[in-house]
Design brief:
Chain B: GO terms for molecular function: aminoacyl-tRNA deacylase activity. The complex is a heterodimer of chains A (401) and B (322). With 401 residues, chain A is of the alpha/beta class. Helix content of chain A is 48%, strand content 12%. Chain A has 20 helices and eleven strands. In chain A, helix 5 links the parallel strand 5 and strand 6. Chain A is globular and about 65 Å long. The N terminus of chain A is likely disordered. Chain B is an alpha/beta fold and 322 residues long. Chain B contains nine helices and eight strands. In chain B, helix 7 runs antiparallel to helix 9. The two termini of chain B are 32 Å apart. The chains are: A alpha/beta (401), B alpha/beta (322). At the A-B interface, helix 7, helix 19 and helix 20 of A face helix 6 and helix 9 of B.
């Protein structure tokens, strides 16, 4: 039974989480337990992580170990089917609203790459240039251009071209994809979509009719050049939890049109440098580390803008230790420091006051610089021709190898 | 087939760039142009098409009154004292695809001008409107710098404005401040990294998403070290060489370099003392652990590049004649 999101209930100062806005109650932290409860998805517990390790014969991704991907819908069905020898495909996407990608944007892609490698399954990546054209009032050309630019950063995350299809809505909508869009649209009343997404009478009809576009990549028949004859293929969607409304709608519709419900695996929000009160914002350059930042920029941002849980003076710090609950460098290390033992050590020493904030920041700067540097080098190897190849409507004969 | 004037005007309208257009008889000089559009309130531009000794091309677009000293510019680009001269007439037609007397920043819309470096006078930014030829000498258009920027960005260029009259010293401790503007087809500075393969032709459908070679040009340039004025390009840290493309030899060298660097760092007096005879196992494990992900990433890039080359060839293959 899916819980539906009743927008009318959100009158009190509740936290707001939907695809276009994320803000905590009273400017505090996002309450993820409440979110899971409200949305009606499941917690991803340690037993899942162990099972994934067993099935893929490799250590689980750092995001799984640290609870970054913490919620799911029907992930157990995917794993059950996988154990029986039934494969699945991955579906994720990006709304190309800006050229500047920050680390928060990369998280679902880093995790999806791991899933592709670990389970050896194909992937479709949707670039919702039409959505950004409508919501951010960009011109069609500009949103298409941004889609291509973003595609390069996405490719730089290391996806295997023989198993990955990237498409932009403006290029691809039509044919079988559009047929599915109409099938989905017929199953969702205007009232329902208003209830889920909060549209008003002032919103233009483009917005109102957009949700099916993001829904139908969950159905294999939308990609006849890839999955023809495989109508039974399941779909797993790694995404940040604010995308849940789209897929609640999709899961509601799927059985009515004879398709499997897509499964979801959802992540926390990557906190802004200044602290845990929402998502990073592409419009404030100091709230995030961008993939184009130099080592100097990263050092500056971490040192000057990262919100820490350290005490005001060294004496106080040694006495009371750091407040790990709010410390951003620790949270970032939680995402990106691979070595579990080292992270534990840092948390212990910093929490006890034996390690100073400066040291933690220094380690974080190292980790982030290495990450951004690696990304940039991979990005430099992505040519326009490579983007064309990733985006070409072509068969992927080795997609399950 | 170069872009035509009408195509350009249509494009500007599509991008919602405000401009005024003035038709007049064909003009070949700024003075002649001034007779027809000198009183329209916009400022005239002079546009030079230049070439250096290594056959790299530059369009310098400046306010008509700005003094442009080719000797100084040549030094600031790192080409030495006499490195720049006016490009030959044939190059105008071949590369910019505009007629004589019609050099204009808009010419970079053409595929053939992919590798031409564009230097814009910062003076444009303070003017209400500036006048350029829209790929044809029988018309002039007047628009502001933001409009020009919007157009340039739409064809994949990163517009940057420089002080063309500046004459900073260039020497051992002051690297040429405009070095980043030199197209990277052949490196100027000796430690400039080689470029990844990018073919001349483009299979892209939409014009707006056309060639990002300009981005590739600026991305490959070395940031001159430390003190010198650096024009803000797309920031790239190129201290290390970029990932080699689908060149098996280079790929293997990169892998071996990384492996041996890690190996050497693992073997020290301390580690020998610590592990003794087991050092081999210990080092082997650490190398695998430390390099696994890195090498997989490199291999994926190599695979993707090779696939792309094959794909590209496939789209142009001619079926066997039966």
């Amino acid at each position: 039974m899916e819980k539906t999101d009743d927008k009318n209930q959100q009158q009190e100062e509740e936290q707001v989480v939907n695809p276009w806005e994320v803000s905590a109650k009273d400017g505090g932290k996002i309450d993820y337990d409440k979110l899971i409860d409200k949305f009606g998805c499941q917690r991803l517990d340690q037993s899942f992580v162990d099972r994934v390790q067993r099935l893929t014969s490799r250590p689980p991704h750092v995001f799984l170990r640290r609870g970054v991907f913490f919620a799911h819908r029907d992930f157990n069905d995917i794993l059950d089917a996988y154990e029986r020898g039934e494969k699945f495909y991955l579906y994720t996407g990006r709304g190309p609203s800006s050229e500047a990608l920050h680390l928060g944007h990369l998280i679902p892609f880093m995790f999806t790459k791991y899933l592709q490698d670990a389970f050896k399954v194909p992937l479709v990546i949707q670039l919702t240039d039409d959505e950004k054209c409508m919501w951010k009032n960009l011109s069609v050309e500009e949103s298409q251009r941004l889609a291509r630019e973003n595609a390069k950063d996405i490719i730089a995350c290391g996806f295997d071209i023989s198993k990955t299809f990237i498409f932009s809505d403006f290029d691809y909508v039509g044919g079988a994809f559009y047929k599915n869009m109409v099938k989905v649209a017929k199953c969702v009343t205007y009232n329902k979509v208003v209830g889920i997404f909060g549209f008003t009478g002032e919103d233009h009809i483009g917005k109102v009719s957009f949700p099916p576009v993001q829904a139908v990549p969950s159905f294999p028949s939308s990609f006849p050049h890839l999955f023809s004859g495989k109508d039974n293929l399941r779909c797993l969607i790694p995404c940040a939890i604010d995308q849940d409304p789209y897929f609640r709608m999709t899961r509601d519709v799927a059985p009515r049109i004879g398709y499997h419900k897509p499964a979801l695996i959802e992540s926390l929000f990557f906190p802004a440098l200044q602290g845990e009160n929402g998502k990073m914002s592409a419009s404030d350059p100091n709230s995030a580390i961008y993939v184009t930042d130099s080592a100097k920029d990263i050092k500056y941002k971490v040192n000057k803008h990262a919100f820490t849980g350290g005490q005001e003076s060294i004496e106080k710090h040694r006495q009371y230790g750091a407040n790990l609950e709010v410390d951003i460098p620790i949270k970032y290390l939680n995402f990106f420091l691979e070595d579990d033992a080292e992270l534990e050590h840092i948390k212990k020493e910093y929490g006890a006051g034996r390690m100073l904030t400066g040291e933690v920041k220094k380690r974080l700067t190292e980790v982030l610089t290495e990450l951004v540097e690696r990304h940039r080098r991979a990005r430099a190897a992505v040519t326009d021709e490579m983007v064309d190849a990733f985006m070409a409507v072509r068969p992927l004969p080795n997609m399950f190898d | 087939m170069g872009y035509s004037k009408d195509q350009l005007l249509a494009r500007l309208k599509e991008l919602q760039i405000e401009f005024s257009q003035y038709e007049h008889p064909i003009v070949l000089t700024v003075e002649a142009q001034a007779k027809y559009v000198g009183n329209t309130g916009g400022v005239l531009s002079k546009n030079l098409f230049l070439k250096d000794k290594k056959h790299r091309y530059y369009v310098v677009s400046a306010l008509a009154d700005t003094k442009v000293d080719l000797k100084v510019l040549s030094q600031r680009l790192g080409l030495g004292k006499g490195g720049l001269r006016m490009a030959p007439e044939e190059a105008l037609g071949e590369i910019l695809q505009v007629p004589l007397g019609c050099v204009t920043p808009f010419a970079v819309v053409n595929e053939s001008a992919r590798h031409v470096s564009l230097l814009l006078d910062q003076g444009f930014k303070t003017q209400k409107c500036c006048i350029f030829h829209p790929l044809s000498n029988d018309m002039s258009i007047s628009l502001n710098a933001q409009g020009l920027d919007k157009f340039l960005e739409s064809v994949g260029r990163n517009p940057s404005y420089i002080d063309l009259e500046a004459n900073p010293p260039v020497g051992k401790d002051q690297p040429p401040d405009l070095a980043a503007f030199v197209p990277s087809d052949s490196p100027v500075l000796s430690d400039l990294p080689g470029k990844a393969p990018s073919s001349q032709d483009s299979t892209v459908k939409s014009v707006g998403a056309a060639t990002n070679s300009a981005a590739a040009v600026t991305a490959k340039a070395v940031k001159p070290s430390g003190k010198a004025q650096n024009v803000k390009e797309k920031p790239v840290d190129s201290v290390r060489p970029p990932i080699p493309a689908a060149d098996a030899g280079k790929f293997v060298e990169e892998l071996l370099d990384r492996a041996s660097a890690l190996l050497l760092s693992e073997i020290s007096e301390d580690s020998i003392k610590q592990h003794g005879g087991q050092l081999g196992d210990e080092v082997a494990n650490n190398i695998k652990k430390g390099l696994r992900e890195d090498l997989k990433n490199l291999a994926t890039i190599f695979k993707n590049t090779a696939y792309t080359e094959g794909f590209y060839a496939g789209t142009r293959y001619q079926p066997k004649r039966l």
